Amino acid sequence: MSTELDVTRTSAETYLVMAGWSRGDDAAPGRLAMRFRSTTISLTLWYTPEVGMLRLVIEPRGGAVLGGIFRGGSADLRVFAPSADALGLLCWLTSSQGELARDTVSDWIDHAITICPETYAVVSMPGEPEALAPVTGAGRCRVLH
Predict the structure, then answer these.
(1) CA nearest 75: which of 52, 103, 44?
(2) Is the separation of the CB atoms in 59 and 100 below 8 Å?
(3) What residues are paired with 42 via a beta bridge?
(4) Contacts for 33-38: CB closer than 8 Å, 24+ residues apart
(5) d(Cα 25, Cα 39) in Å, to the nearest integer?
(6) Higher-confidence residue: 136 or 45?
(7) Residue 81: which residues within 8 A CB-CB, separation 6 or more?
(8) Which of 56, 62, 91, 113 is buried most deeply by CB count within 10 Å?
(9) 90 phi and psi, to 5 degrees?
(10) pTM score, whole prediction
(11) Distance between terminal CA atoms of the chain?
(12) What is the mean pLDDT of the segment spanning 57-74?
């Protein structure tokens, strides 16, 4: 892995830990896995800097969010972005994580796609090959066939 990518991964990890996230134990070498839990939301993030991808699983607590990109009460997103944009998204995520809840998560996703427009939701069912659809706003996604 290049020095720049390693610095990006390390910066992201340091920033998330300072914001109350815990390290996950399922990160491959050179990658990052982190978790955040509050009374209103559960967030799990994997970052693969060599391909510029963040995977973010959002699980609101206090009742499932149904419809749109939420399947079984959670949304599984893939965000493709250069390092600077990915770090910008993480900065914004940590600054707003205390406000994230079941009734605010759609607005949060709307803002996230303004930072990183190449955001996709997993729309396939568990056990099926992964199918992605672009997130177009308000927690909705457009399904591509």
Answers:
(1) 44
(2) no
(3) 37, 59
(4) 36/97, 38/97, 38/98, 38/100
(5) 22
(6) 45
(7) 52, 54, 89, 115, 116, 118
(8) 56
(9) -65, -40
(10) 0.86
(11) 35
(12) 79
